[in-house]
Amino acid sequence: MNLTLRVWRQANPGTPGRLVEYKADNISPDMSFLEMLDVVNEGIIKRGEEPIAFDSDCREGICGTCGCMVNGVAHGPDPGTTVCQLHMRRFRNGDTITIEPWRAAAFPVVKDLVVDRSALDRVVRAGGYVSMNVGAAPDANAIPVPKTLADQAFDAAACIQCGACVAACKNASAALFTSAKLAHLNLLPQGQAEKTRRTLRMVEQMDVEGFGACSNEGECEAVCPKEIKITNIAKMNRDYFKASLVGAR
After folding, report:
1. Cα 117 to chain center, whole Å?
2. Domain harbouring 13, CATH code
3. Do 90 and 176 have their domain in common?
4. Using an 8 Å Cβ cutoff, are 205 and 122 in contact?
5. Do 204 and 132 sit in the same domain of this protein?
6. pTM exceeding the 0.90 threshold for the entire prediction
């Protein structure tokens, strides 16, 4: 396959960026998208130029490190996958592919396709924990958990914190991410002690970081590689309303 890439190049946060065109020739359809970028970078380095900077780690759709806009879609055209799981057979010979970083005020560009997503870490740090005694592992059946709640909590906990939901949202909202982190703790018995405080702190930290408001249009769910449901946002809004009435912090 021979492709044309239009890649966002930006040296650092303080300089303007632009789309730069590159040729990606002799690309195997079996390559992943990031492997294709590796090959393009090899050619760029041989020419003595600065390679394209992009994030990656596990390349198995687990870590949440990778992420970019591919033809305007977070993680590319395949549903339920990260960009590292996207394969070049999804494209056709001769295609032009535009590759850009996440676009959100809370995700400043570090370099090229790399953005600073530490705002998500700060949201979690504001309240994403449970207080419990450490020591020997408790018996598996020590705290009964209804299966329906366990399933919902597990589905929410699948969030890998990649930020695609923010990038896809026209308001750059982190509501899906925050609601998933809240749901997987608030639904379980172990998370009840801090539920009110956790909800208030994490939602308020989300606002402090500059994420926009949710307008409930579902772009976030459509691009989420773990297919987190927007029903979690409804749960978060309900819990936040209740917590606001109680006012515990």
Report:
1. 9
2. 3.10.20.30
3. no
4. yes
5. yes
6. yes
